[in-house]
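Worked example 2:
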Amino acid sequence: MGGIAGRRTDADPVPPIPEAAALPPSSDPRRPVVAALMLAMALAALDATIISTAVPQIVGDLGGFSVFSWLFSGYLLAVTVTLPVYGKLSDTFGRKPVLVFGIALFLVGSLLCAGAWDMASLIAFRVVQGLGGGAIQGTVQTIAGDLYGLKGRPRIQARLSTVWALSSVAGPAVGGALAGYTSWRWIFLINLPVGALALWLVMRHLHEPARPTRERPRVDWAGALAIFATGGLLLTALVQGGVAWDWLSAPSLAMLGGAAVCAAATVLIERRAAEPIIPGWVWRRRTIVAANLALGALGLVIIAPSVFLPTYAQSVLGLGPVAAGLVLSVMTLSWPISAALSNRVYNRIGFRRCAILGISGAALTLFAFPFLPYPGAAWQPALLMLVLGAALGLFQLPLIVGVQSSVGWEERGTATASIFFCRQVGQSVGAALFGAIANATLTDRLADAPAEIRPGLPEDLDSVSHALEHPEGLTDQAAEYLRRAVDTAVDHVYVGSAAAAAAAVLVLFFVAPRVFPIREDGEEGETADEETA
């Protein structure tokens, strides 16, 4: 079951809530709850990718080509800035009300998106979806940690990883089919039956124990608003910098400066709050700090394959969109398999060593990418992505399980939300940083092109992709030069991603404790993470 009921100790200010008590009373109590978690996770995972292939139809119907990127950015911003808030609320009021609210808000946003009348309204309704998606992502992971003890958490986390991986692969195909054969509005309407079933299962089968009687909890609304402002300004600056405006332009500097001011205000507010949204202990415990920093680096690491590999596969290898997607998809297939088997590794060598093994393998794999032959064959990057997924499965899951097992019920929501918040921020930073690296490399290559082929080359970066898609307008020498320039740019991105993985290795070596403390059901216990001789 979920574990053994905890006993009150002098170190526990609030009586621990037994994990088993959160389970519905039936012969196999966790099955319907797990089904609800997987359905809810599928909602959030599908929505992150399903809209990508329908953009041409959406723009053709609603217009707004210049701002359509906010269909993705607005959703990402809303999810990211709300994660720590929902984590604290789930520790304060319970998981069930937060998850029910998140699913319901997500469904309302989906219904509104389906009825959008222009691009501005669709972007606004995508933000509403994101506000619900933030509650779903963090709370689903937290409930998974509540339902299972240390031995069972790898299984449930592997199932959730599988849902995410399959959704990432299936999302673009489903979105393209719906947009091509029905209407892009069905992309949002199909969320309604899936979400309704998840909502019914949660309300019917997830039973949380009665909270201990204590004074009415106070919500740190000032801290929540400060976090919204800080995250919103920072992520907007990162997402739009170098795209909508130059990095050193007035809008970019104003937003980065505003984010810095809001961050300072957040620290002051959180220090004085009775129940801060981001408590100080999140940054005082080495286990959580190390996991936050390492998974923030993971956010940077996965940008190289997820964003730049499809461009490489199409522009350099000459593959079509479907084949390029298959090259990437092998990573999402090996990742959950490796995660499911990772407990056999960390139970023998420890959480820290298992994570170091995984991210070290990822660093070597990423660094090997620039050494692939040019132009090479599709199986070569696909093989590297297969190895990369296996390495990242060994890296991420031990850190999630280790953090969730190091805290009690009353802190698990905040701790879980913090690590996913850091990963989301890492992805935003990675997209901005590596986008700048790729653009700088392409700009240098275009500027240094030989004089005899320069007249046939694109004049700006926006035209590079179009030129490679329609090479009939280029000479053979110009087309080959452009392909090599894209190859070099992607190589530089992969080197940067390898450096981020190496930084995660250093964090785990010098910040993470050698032995992760394990606290199950409110008691300090012996850890399965003892270092072996």
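Confidence is low (pLDDT under 50) at residues 1-26, 522-533. DSSP finds 18 helices and two strands in the chain.
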